[in-house]
Amino acid sequence: MAPLHSSLSNKSETLSQRKKKERERERKRERKKERKTEKERKKEKERKEGKGREGKEKRERKKVSKKKGRKERKKKRKRKKERKEKERKKKEKKENKLQGNNMILDAKILNKILAN
């Protein structure tokens, strides 16, 4: 039977067995980290080169933003033009109304003059 150590959580396991398991766990963690960093490096490389899904998405977003920018500017110009046109029509309407009122006043004055 193997010696029992009070410092071990599993009393049936020897100190050397415990150390061996710990080393294996540590190796697994390191391998996992390496795999993770490899994936990150690969993604980063693809991102820089503009390849892969992320690069493609970035290119698409760029295209859309350019198109969107042009379209937005065009819409803005159109709205501005419409606003100016509306203001011009409003002003014209006011002037016509004033002229119409003046004509009505002139007609009333003429009628009074003719009536006298």
Helices and strands, with pairings:
Elements: H1 15-49, H2 52-115
Key terms:
rod-shaped; 116 residues; mainly alpha; 0% strand
Could you characterize what this model shows?
By secondary structure, the protein is mainly α. Helices cover 85% and strands 0% of the residues. The chain contains two helices and no strands. It has helices at residues 15-49, 52-115. It is rod-shaped and about 135 Å long.
In short:
With 116 residues, the chain is mostly helical.
Assign an overall shape: rod-shaped
Going by helix content, strand content and strand pairing, the class is: mainly alpha
Fraction in helix: over 70%
Mean pLDDT rating: 78
How does the major sheet shape up? none
Strand fraction band?
A: under 5%
Distance between the termini: 142 Å
How many separate helices? 2
Which ranges are low-confidence, i.e. pLDDT below 50, for 5 or more consecutive residues? none
Topology as a string of helices (H) and strands (E): HH
Task: Classify the oligomer.
Answer: single chain
The gyration radius over C-alpha positions equals 43 Å
